[in-house]
Amino acid sequence: MATQQMCEPATSGTKSYVAAPSRKSREPPAETSPTAFTADYPTTTVLSKTRAVIVITQLLGLSLFSSFCNGIIVVGLPAIATSLQLQESLLLWPTSVFYLTAGSCLLMAGSIADVVGTKRVNLVGSFFSAASALACGLGRTGGELIAFRALQGVTNAIIVPSSISIISTSVEDGQPRNMGFACLGFAGPIGFSLGLVLGGVFVDSIGWRPAFYLAGAASFVLSLLGVWALPRDARPRSEQSIWMRLVSEIDWVGAILASTGLATLSYVLA
Fold first, then answer.
1. Which residue among 48, 54, 102, 217 has the highest number of C-beta atoms inside a 10 angstrom radius?
2. What rounded mean pLDDT belongs to the chain?
3. What is the b/e burial string over 234-256, where b = at least 16 CB atoms within 10 angstroms of the residue's CB?
4. Got the DSSP string for 33-57?
5. Contact 18/25 with Cβ under 8 angstroms?
6. How far apart, in whole angstroms, are the C-alpha atoms of residue 164 and residue 59?
7. What is the pLDDT of residues 211-226, one digit of tens each?
8. In this structure, how many other beta carbons lie within 10 angstroms of the beta carbon of residue 117?
9. 117: nearest Cα among 125, 105, 127, 128
10. Is 29 helix (H, G, I), strand (E, B) or coil?
11. Are the C-beta atoms of 134 and 216 separated by less than 8 Å?
């Protein structure tokens, strides 16, 4: 608490009071431990160049063969409609339903990947991507084909955000990471183009079903490669279980409303 001193100037008989300056503490500020800010966040390791190339190739292949199936549907739709006796009102649904489910599930899949782990989510997506591609080739009715194509869209929504997260956190910053993002970017157009070309060859020669078998087999091999190649998910420092974190860290109401809104809007515009 500041004290007051009485001063008597020579030219005046009045008395004035001047507040003395308060004493500031000279104790050094408390240092904050750098681990206090990262206590709840897992650390990641940067992959070597060889391992990064393998990981990028695996992620690129998953996106490529997912788009490959879209090209097959486009070029083989007349033959598919004849084989499955697909109604004229449903001709666009084998193509449209993929983008409908992929777009509406993207936000929720990314939120789950942040909690569960990118490797686990990517492996689940790659396995079901292979299964859905094989199921499209085995479909016997138009309804089955549309349902399996919808499942393919969900698997694509699972793969995309986890692939982006793996590259952004595990690949060295700079040119390697830029190349990884570039590979993910051109995998879609190249896969679609290959689907148009090779799909046409398959349709004119041995039929459209083996084209889906090829995509399913390739996706299954890539999923097995991912078990070894993809970096391990770092263990979170939080003591909560995954199920508790899924409940507490994800805004399920917002995610469901956003996904439902996107699906409804896409359905109306379709």
1. 102
2. 81
3. eeeeeeeeeeeeeeeeeeeeebe
4. PGGGTSTTS----PPPHHHHHHHHH
5. no
6. 9
7. 999 999 999 999 999 9
8. 20
9. 125
10. coil
11. yes
Choose between 237 and 146: higher pLDDT. 146
- pTM (global) more than 0.70: yes
Distance CA(214)–CA(219), nearest Å, equals 9
How many residues are there in the chain?
270
Q: What is the dihedral of CA 81, 82, 83, 88, to 10 degrees?
A: 40
Confidence of residue 240 (pLDDT cuts 50, 70, 90): low
User: Per-residue pLDDT for 33 more than 50?
Assistant: no
Higher-scoring residue by pLDDT: 249, 107: 107
Structure tokens at 75: 């070029």
Which residue has better confidence, 249 or 144?
144
Q: 3 and 20 in contact (C-beta within 8 Å)? A: yes
Which tokens go with 259? 């996904």
pLDDT of residue 250: 79
d(CA 138, CA 144): 9
C-alpha neighbours within 13 Å on the C-beta side of residue 219: 33
CA-based angle 218:223:224, to the nearest 5? 100
Region label for 22, one of left (φ > 0), alpha (ψ between -120 and 50) or beta (otherwise): beta
Which residues have C-beta within 8 Å of that of residue 132, sequence separation ≥ 6? 148, 149, 151, 152, 155, 216
Query: What's the pLDDT at 35?
Result: 38
* Rounded-to-10 torsion of CA 91, 217, 228, 162: 0
**Crossing angle (nearest 10°) for helices 242-249 and 93-116:** 110
Nearest 5°: phi and psi at 33?
Answer: -70, 135
CB 223 within 8 A of CB 123: yes
- Averaged over 60-74, what is the pLDDT? 93
Q: Which amino acid is at 176?
A: P
